[in-house]
Design brief:
Structural class: mainly beta
Shape: elongated
Distance between the termini: 58 Å
Number of helices: 1
Number of domains: 2
Mean pLDDT: 84
Low-confidence stretches: 1-15
Length: about 140
């Protein structure tokens, strides 16, 4: 088997391969190179003809989100929604670990206020500055 083909199986997000695009939730299009047409950690993103600015971007599917630093994807998330007192709390969950300390937590209006929230029957989180700082199966003291 050709080395380039073998590498594409082992390192699917290396910046060599064909030019691929993904539609963002806001209608813009990101361009990247990938052997297997996968967008993930390590891909360099182009947006509006230049490197994508630092920040978080959500794909059109509304569930996939990624963080970009220096034009490169450094983190990939999926968005999980939890009903809470008449609104939906959204959490950027790691594809590998789910959610935990350091994950962004917010509503459609913006970051969640500091406090303690129950997201599931046995999942409490403490929030500070829009980030989860503690999780527990028991209620967390403020």
């Amino acid at each position: 088997m050709d080395d380039d083909v073998l590498d594409s199986f082992l390192l699917p997000n290396t910046p060599s391969g064909k030019r691929c695009t993904r539609l963002l939730a806001d209608g813009r299009v990101v361009v990247f190179e990938s052997v297997l047409n996968l967008l993930g950690v390590g891909n360099t993103l182009m947006l509006n003809g230049g490197k994508a600015l630092d920040g978080r971007y959500t794909l059109k599917d509304g569930v996939t989100r990624f963080e970009v630093l220096g034009g490169v994807v450094v983190h990939e998330y999926y968005i999980e929604g939890y009903p809470h007192k008449g609104r939906i709390i959204l959490v950027d969950c790691s594809r590998m670990n789910g959610f935990g300390s350091g994950c962004a937590i917010y509503t459609k209006e913006g970051p969640l206020s500091d406090g303690v929230y129950r997201l599931k029957r046995f999942k409490w989180v403490k929030v500070e500055n829009g980030l989860i700082v503690q999780t527990s199966i028991f209620r967390i003291k403020q």
